Amino acid sequence: MKKILNEFKEFALKGSMFDMAIGVIMGGAVSKVVGSMVNDLITPLISLIAGNQASLAEKAWIVGEVSIKYGSFISVVIDFLITALVIFLMVKLLNSFRKKKEEQKPAATPEPNKTEILLQEILEELRKNK
């Protein structure tokens, strides 16, 4: 149990949880914008092109007493595709920023070996004795 708590603590403090929370919030905001764009701009244009004034979401086939709302389904598919494209582009942009940041980091200096440490100590002693 203690191991799980330590792993969770590391996960939460590492920043992964904050990244995930930001992603969920941004995803919700993007979803609202894309939903509005699909419902208010794209589907009315598709309806106009199709020659009907009715909204695409209202398109349906009536089979007996059952209404098959294919227009609503098409709207949701368009909504999904645009949302997926926007998120893909955001992730791609974020990855390019991270890649540039990693390229700008200076190379890590290697740890000194025992000989170098000993030589450094000798040099310090020589400086003290002057």
Summarize the structure.
By secondary structure, this protein is mainly alpha-helical. It has 4 helices and 2 strands.
Report what the structure shows:
The protein is mainly alpha-helical. The chain has a single domain (about 1-130), classed as Orthogonal Bundle (Non-ribosomal Peptide Synthetase Peptidyl Carrier Protein, Chain A). The chain is about 75% helix and about 5% strand. It has four helices and two strands. The chain has a two-stranded antiparallel sheet with strand order 1-2. Helix 2 crosses helix 3. The two termini are about 60 Å apart.
Secondary structure blueprint with pairings:
Layout: H1 2-14, H2 16-50, E1 61-63, E2 66-68, H3 70-104, H4 114-129
Antiparallel strand pairs: 1-2
Helix pairs in contact: 2-3
Provide tags for this entry.
130 residues, mainly alpha, Non-ribosomal Peptide Synthetase Peptidyl Carrier Protein, Chain A, two-stranded antiparallel ribbon, 4 helices, 76% helix, elongated
